[in-house]
Structure formats: structure tokens, C-alpha cells
From TrEMBL:
The keyword Lyase applies. One of its GO terms (molecular function) is long-chain (3S)-3-hydroxyacyl-CoA dehydrogenase (NAD+) activity. Residues 328-499 form the 3-hydroxyacyl-CoA dehydrogenase NAD binding domain. In the N-terminal section; belongs to the enoyl-CoA hydratase/isomerase family. Keywords: Fatty acid metabolism, Lipid degradation, Lipid metabolism, Lyase, Multifunctional enzyme, NAD, Oxidoreductase. PROSITE patterns: 3HCDH. Pathway: Lipid metabolism; fatty acid beta-oxidation. Residues 504-598 form the 3-hydroxyacyl-CoA dehydrogenase C-terminal domain. Coiled coil: none annotated. This is enoyl-CoA hydratase. GO terms for biological process: fatty acid beta-oxidation. InterPro entries: 3-OHacyl-CoA_DH_CS, 3-OHacyl-CoA_DH_NAD-bd, 3HC_DH_C, 6-PGluconate_DH-like_C_sf, ClpP/crotonase-like_dom_sf, Enoyl-CoA_hydra/iso, FA_oxidation_alpha_subunit, NAD(P)-bd_dom_sf.
Length: 705
């Protein structure tokens, strides 16, 4: 162990206040407690075998034992604190409910959990939750059952259940709306967005925000009655009246409808209904919460979104390990390269950014600064991120970098010339990665002296929002390089999806038939708004025409041409109008004009669609099938060819790389749910009507097993 490591171990106890030193009075599997000299019991939550605390049934059973013990401890107060560096608790352990399809069984389990938290809430002694790091879902519901909440600077509190097709189920709905402004409470639960410590204090969600070194003093003040909890204020009183709740609920439904149609995402509307009907009666709202949560959890949306949660966990598991990467050099300061550099610097890496055009570097630094202003929560974080992002006009950063990411134009010759220039200057052991979106790595690696350290890191646009990175392998890359590349994704909070080098890799190869089919329908006279509406009705976050503008029509054209040239897949010719648009510079959102015209905020200007009398416009269901089924067919082909090894990885890649309708659980899962025979029959019918590009791939036979 290094000297600094030994010092850290010595100081580690000071870094987190966990109560009295010495042996705990009692140690259970997931909890331990000790009473200090002032009669305060410090209850430490430390879930065994996990890096993060979650509330499982076993955890709650043990907590009940501790509450029993309190009767004989003559305690003056109770403090609940996490021993995990990552935070207080990440929520309920959703694994406890996996595969449970009986709503009454779930209702019984929830009722037991409510009884426990009610018991905690009704203790006669002061109870204090000390919150650091993340405090989410069931973890926040545990904290809400305490009389006081003290947040350590940097803490983040929220209810992300809506992202699982649920709403809070352990008392969050009635405790939060009783504690703070009910409209703010509903906004937190409806959006799933967490609030940071200072905002939580302003809302009244926490009573105090302190630095770690002041935790013990804050706890003593809370137990002594010197820490006054916030009160909900005037608006809470108004919202106890049914007419006021009804008006607010109507506004909430209208807002929810913009991003989450009720037919696909029922949870927000169930939550709004709970509050509208029972917001003035916490006990009635508690009973309704238990029933509603149980019904939602057994429904198809929640079951599929829970599947998506585990798909995310599957990809996150691939990102474990040490990358050995602390310095990154990015070549190409366009939208992708600049945003990759900005994101890496935001996640704590030292980054140099270079480009032949100094103005491109300046624009990228400006975008990074704007991003940091919006997404980083303190001036110190913003300053440090900008300090880590260095404009590199001479390209000297390549010599110190552990990882060099090339993000120049999507042209094979251009990329290879970059490699010829930088490879001799890279330090031994450094990884060279390409952000190519479609070019096979076997073509790009020619002439490289260290093909074993050459890998694809394909980010998706916008980099700061899209979580997926395709880790593109080839037959000369070493396993060590691949392992480090996957771990690098973990370092920067991204999800690695391993794919084999092939034209378009996985995501772009599957996405291109979806986009090209939309172009063909537009060529047939179907209005772009109708095409996009059909895709959104299916559940896509945006339609293919708007998505093409977002990706860039020039990139769509380049990828479509390359795939048609290099793959045996049947693919139609790209319409002439697309070529003309690209040649005219109408490349989409980045140019302000493409298939749509964009306003100064980058929003498309949509027109009301007027269908000419007698015009043949396909039904939305057939339009959706024409768009989505070629994507599914291509994914099945990629599985058969070994471009991707696992169905789960393919599903995860399409959800986190393209936003494929999450409530459907992934494209291949959707195919299985709908029925492989039905899908292939529909493909045969479409092939007869529109051509061989719809012919079912032979890989569908494997999915029947």
C-alpha cells in the first residue's frame, strides 16, 4: 500500500461520522448500532455484500428488530446513517419483486413495510436521518419516516420510481406531499429528477445542510430540539382543498401527456389521481398508495421497465474493473469530439482537446462551459471541470494521454492519416480509440503498429445525454484493451455494449433501415408529421424524420451508402431529395434546416398536416410496422452473424443508444411478446407489398426456441 493509501486508511473514520468508536452494541447482517455517551443510538445501515444500500425484505425485518431493542436502551434519540461511501440508500431492492405477478402478495409485503415505517415515524424520541450521496426511492421514504433529515453537502434526494413505471410505494406519496409544498412534491415524483442538498433545504425536505465534519454537532442539535423542521407553508393549506387539487391535477396531466402518454405510461396518472382524490387525508392516501403500487407493478409497463432496469445493470456489470485511464486526448472538436471531451472532464478526467481549426476548439470549450453551468451544481465543480479541459492547439497532449479518442470526419482516409501522425507520439501502453459510427475497424487498423491497443468507442449524440457506448472489437485487439475500454465507460458513467466490428456495428446498422424506410414513405407522399406521429404513438421518444435531423442528414446519407455498399442486406436506393438536401447544406438541426426548419432554440417548427382529398395515407399501425419491423429484422440478423452475442445486450443497446420505446422492454423482447410467428408473417406480407427488404431473416427460427 502506498503512503497516501495508509494515510487515507488512518483518516477514513474522520471522513464519515458513524458514531462512537469501539465495538457496536449489536451487529446484525445489514445493521449495527451503538449508543454514545449522550444516550443517542447511532444505527448504521451497511448492506452485506453490496456496494450500495437497498431496502430488501431482510433489511426491513432487521430494522424491526432494532426498533424492538430501542425499548430497553433508554435512548435519548436515534440516528440512521449509511456506512456506504456511495450514499444513504438507492431505494427498494427491486429484485425482491422480480417475477411476482400476484398483486395481493405485493400488497401484503408493502403493508408490512408501511407498518414498520409508521412505527419508526411514531417513536417518541427524536429520530434523525443523516444523508450523504444518493438518497432515492425507498431510501428517501425511510428518511421521511424520521423526524429530522440532515444532508451532507453534495447529497442528492429523489423519487425515480416513475422511471420504473411506478410511483413511491413505502409512504412517499403522502409523507412528501405533507412535508413540503405539495406541487413541488408532485413534481419531484412525476419527473423522477433528484434535487441536490441546497434545493432540498429550500424546499423543506431537509432541515439542515452541513459539511461532514459538522455532522455530530448537527445530530446533537436535532436531538436537543434546537433544529427546527421546515413547515409546508401557505400553499399546502390551499392544496388541502379538493377544488384546488383538481385544478392543479388537470395541469399536471396535461404536462405529463407531452412526454408520457397514459396508454404507455400509466404511473404518472395514477399518482396524480391518488393525490387529487386523497391529498387531504394521509391515511386514505396511504391505503390507496399500497393498492395502486401493487397493481402497477404487476402491469406490463412496470414489468418491462423493470426489465430495462436489469438490462442497465447488465451493462454496468461489464464496466467493472480498473481502466488505468486518467488522461484523455480527444482529436476533433466538432459536436461529437467536443462533447466527449467535455463529458470526460466533467467526470473527473484530465482532457486535452485538439483540432486543425482553432475556432472549432473555441466553440467546443464554449459549449462545455454552457453544459457545466446547467448540469454541475456548484461554482467549484464548474471551475474544476473547466480546469481539467485544456484547449490543445498544438496537439501535445497526445504524449501524456492514457487514452486517445479520434473523432474526426467519418472518412476512412482522413482517420488513417490521423493515426499515421499521432501513433509514433503516443506513450507505451496507451489506447487508441476511434469514435467511428460505422467504418469497420479492420479497415482503419491497417498500418498500425499496435493493433492490439486499437478499439472502437462509439458514443451517441448527444453525448451528454445518451448513455450507451459501443465497445467495438476486432480480431487483433487484446482482451486487456477491451477490459480497460469497458472500465473507462464505468469511469465516466456510461454503459458499454460489446459489439463486433462490422459495417454500422449494431445500433446504426439496425437504425438505418428504420430511417431509410421513413425516407421512402416521405418519397411516396406521406407527410413527415404523419410518419413521426406513428413512431411516437408506438412509443419512440421522437419520430424518425426528426431523429434523422438530430443525427444529421449528411451522416445518415454517408452511413446508408456505406451499408448498402458493404453489406448483403437488401437496402433500397437513397432518395434523390436526400442527396440534394445534403449538397445544399440542409443537414438537419445543426444547420437550422433539414427535413424540418428549426427555431433559435433548436426546436422543429411543425406544421398542421392537411391531407389532400383522395390521398392514400397508410394507417398509423402499418406505418409503425414499416418502420419498426426492419429494425427488428436487422437485429435478428446481427445476432445470427455474431455482431452481438446476447439478446439482452442488443435490447439494451437499442434502448440506451436510440431511445427505443422503453416501456416495451427492448425490441427483441417486444418481438417475443408480440409473437415471433406474427412478426414473421407480417414481414412476409410487407415483403409482398413493398419488396425483398422486408423478407424475414433466417435468424428468426432461433428466437422460436
Amino acid at each position: 500500500m502506498t503512503v497516501s493509501g495508509k494515510v487515507w486508511r488512518v483518516l477514513e473514520r474522520r471522513n464519515m461520522e458513524l458514531g462512537p468508536k469501539g465495538e457496536p452494541a449489536r451487529t446484525l447482517t445489514h445493521w449495527r448500532y451503538t449508543k454514545d455517551g449522550e444516550g443517542i443510538v447511532w444505527l448504521i445501515f451497511d448492506r452485506a455484500g453490496q456496494s450500495t444500500n437497498t431496502l430488501s425484505e431482510e433489511v426491513l425485518v432487521e430494522l424491526n428488530l432494532v426498533l424492538e431493542d430501542l425499548k430497553g436502551l433508554n435512548a435519548k434519540g436515534l440516528v440512521i446513517r449509511s456506512a456506504k461511501k456511495s450514499g444513504f440508500a438507492a431505494g427498494a431492492d427491486i429484485r425482491d419483486f422480480r417475477g411476482v405477478t400476484n398483486a395481493s402478495e405485493i400488497e401484503s409485503r408493502l403493508a408490512r413495510g408501511h407498518e414498520l415505517l409508521d412505527r419508526l415515524a411514531n417513536l417518541s424520541i427524536p429520530t434523525v436521518a443523516v444523508i450523504h450521496g444518493h438518497c432515492l426511492g425507498g431510501g428517501l421514504e425511510l428518511a421521511l419516516a424520521c423526524r429530522h433529515r440532515i444532508a451532507v453537502s453534495g447529497a442528492s434526494l429523489g423519487f425515480p420510481e416513475v422511471l420504473l413505471g411506478l410511483h413511491p410505494g413505502l409512504g412517499g406519496t403522502f409523507r412528501l406531499t405533507s412535508l413540503i409544498d405539495p406541487v413541488e412534491a408532485m413534481t419531484m415524483m412525476l419527473t423522477g429528477r433528484p434535487v441536490h442538498a441546497r434545493k432540498a433545504k429550500a424546499l423543506g425536505l431537509v432541515d439542515e445542510v452541513v459539511e461532514e465534519r459538522h455532522v455530530a454537532n448537527a445530530v446533537r442539535a436535532a436531538v436537543a430540539g434546537k433544529l427546527k423542521p421546515a413547515r409546508p407553508g401557505l400553499k399546502a393549506g390551499v392544496m388541502s382543498l379538493a377544488p384546488a387539487r383538481r385544478m392543479a391535477a388537470n395541469r399536471m396531466r396535461a404536462e405529463a401527456q407531452k412526454n408520457a402518454p397514459e396508454k404507455h405510461y400509466p404511473a404518472p396518472y395514477r399518482l396524480i389521481g391518488l393525490w387529487e382524490e386523497h391529498g387531504g387525508d394521509p391515511k386514505a392516501m396511504q391505503r390507496a398508495e399500497i393498492r395502486s403500487f401493487s397493481e402497477l407493478l404487476t402491469g406490463p409497463t412496470a414489468q418491462n421497465l423493470v426489465r430495462v432496469f436489469f438490462l442497465r445493470e447488465r451493462l454496468k456489470s461489464l464496466a467493472k474493473g480498473e481502466s488505468g485511464i486518467s488522461r484523455v486526448h480527444v482529436i476533433g472538436a466538432g459536436t461529437m469530439g467536443g462533447d466527449i471531451a467535455a463529458w470526460c472532464a466533467a467526470r473527473g478526467l484530465r482532457v486535452t482537446l485538439t483540432d486543425l481549426d482553432p475556432q472549432a476548439i473555441a466553440r467546443a470549450i464554449g459549449r462545455a462551459s454552457s453544459f457545466y453551468d446547467k448540469r454541475l451544481h456548484s461554482s467549484l465543480e464548474r471551475r474544476d471541470a473547466l480546469d481539467r479541459l485544456t484547449p490543445d492547439f498544438e496537439g501535445v497532449g497526445v504524449r501524456q494521454a492514457d487514452l486517445v479518442i479520434e473523432a474526426v470526419a467519418e472518412k476512412e482516409g482522413v482517420k488513417r492519416r490521423v493515426y499515421e501522425e499521432i501513433a509514433p507520439r503516443m506513450k507505451p501502453g496507451a489506447i487508441l480509440a476511434t469514435n467511428t459510427s460505422s467504418i469497420p475497424l479492420e479497415s482503419l487498423r491497417e498500418g498500425l503498429l499496435f493493433a492490439e491497443r486499437f478499439v472502437g468507442l462509439h458514443f451517441f449524440n448527444p453525448v451528454t445525454r445518451m448513455q450507451l457506448v459501443e465497445i467495438v472489437t476486432h480480431d487483433a485487439v487484446s482482451e486487456e484493451t477491451l477490459s480497460r475500454a469497458r472500465a473507462f465507460c464505468g469511469d465516466i458513467s456510461r454503459l458499454p455494449a460489446p459489439v463486433r466490428s462490422a459495417p454500422g456495428f449494431l445500433v446504426n446498422r439496425a437504425l438505418t433501415p428504420y430511417l431509410v424506410e421513413a425516407f421512402l414513405m416521405f418519397d411516396e407522399g406521406v407527410p413527415k408529421e404523419v410518419i413521426d406521429r406513428a413512431a411516437r404513438d408506438f412509443g419512440m421518444p421522437m419520430g424518425p424524420m426528426e431523429l434523422a435531423d438530430r443525427v444529421g442528414l449528411d451522416i445518415c446519407l454517408e452511413v446508408a451508402r456505406m451499408l448498402k455498399e458493404r453489406l448483403p442486406d437488401p437496402m433500397p436506393e437513397v432518395p434523390d431529395w436526400l442527396v440534394q438536401k445534403v449538397e445544399a447544406g440542409e443537414t438537419g438541426r445543426k444547420a437550422g434546416r433539414g427535413l424540418y426548419v428549426y427555431d433559435e432554440n433548436g426546436k422543429p417548427k411543425r406544421e398542421e398536416v392537411k391531407i389532400a382529398e383522395g390521398a392514400q395515407v397508410p394507417r398509423d399501425s402499418e406505418t409503425a410496422d414499416r418502420l419498426v419491423l426492419p429494425m427488428l429484422n436487422t437485429l435478428v440478423r446481427c445476432l445470427r452473424e455474431g455482431v452481438v452475442e446476447e439478446e439482452e445486450v442488443a435490447d439494451a443497446a437499442m434502448i440506451f443508444g436510440t431511445g427505443f420505446a422503453p416501456f416495451r422492454g427492448g425490441p427483441l423482447h417486444y418481438a417475443r411478446e408480440r409473437g415471433v410467428d406474427e412478426i414473421t408473417a407480417k414481414l412476409h406480407a410487407l415483403a409482398q407489398k413493398y419488396g425483398d427488404r422486408f423478407a424475414p431473416d433466417e435468424g428468426w427460427e432461433r428466437l422460436k426456441t
